[in-house]
Amino acid sequence: PLEMSAKKPVPFLRQVVSVRKKVQRDPRFDDLSGEYNPEIFMKTYSFLDSIKKQEKEMVQKQLKKCRNVEQKEKLQQLLKRMTQQEQAQKKQQHMRERELALKRQQRELAKQGKKPFFLKKSEKQKLELAEKFAELKRSGKLESFLSKKRKRNAIKDKRRLPSQKDL
């Protein structure tokens, strides 16, 4: 240690030993980690899908065997979360495939010499909604979906109306 005079006042922030400060970096936003490509990511980590499937089956088996109410509730929540994640992943994959199909179509039109036409966000949403309705009609769940939507809209409308107290 460095000997210092006792008569001299010690500086408030005295650096005893210089320590190199660790630079924290977030791989999500750092260029060193490379560019994010969802297709490559899905191909690289496709083995996780099989592991998730096995885990889901294991949770289902545990749920059948379980007698404890609290444990059963936790397992049901876990199973529900797993299925929701699976559905979200399928939906995301479907959206990606649709976008790729639109891009391919535009490339074909460009090769033929036509001017490329890109859909607006609202047009994409309309196409998505039409596809959703077709899927619901095919599965036979359209009527229940529409009734739920009507109820939701009615509740929103009721909320927007002025209450009797205000009048």
From TrEMBL:
Residue stretches of biased makeup (Basic and acidic residues): 94-111
Keywords: Nucleus, Ribonucleoprotein, Ribosome biogenesis, rRNA processing
Localization per Swiss-Prot or TrEMBL: Nucleus, Nucleolus
A GO cellular component annotation in the UniProt record: 90S preribosome
Feature: compositional bias, Basic residues: 147-167
GO biological process assignments: maturation of SSU-rRNA from tricistronic rRNA transcript (SSU-rRNA, 5.8S rRNA, LSU-rRNA)
Disordered: annotated span: 81-115, 142-167
Family classification: Belongs to the RRP36 family.
Assembly with partners or alone: Associates with 90S and pre-40S pre-ribosomal particles.
Protein name: rRNA biogenesis protein RRP36
Organism of derivation: Thinocorus orbignyianus
UniProt lineage: Eukaryota, Metazoa, Chordata, Craniata, Vertebrata
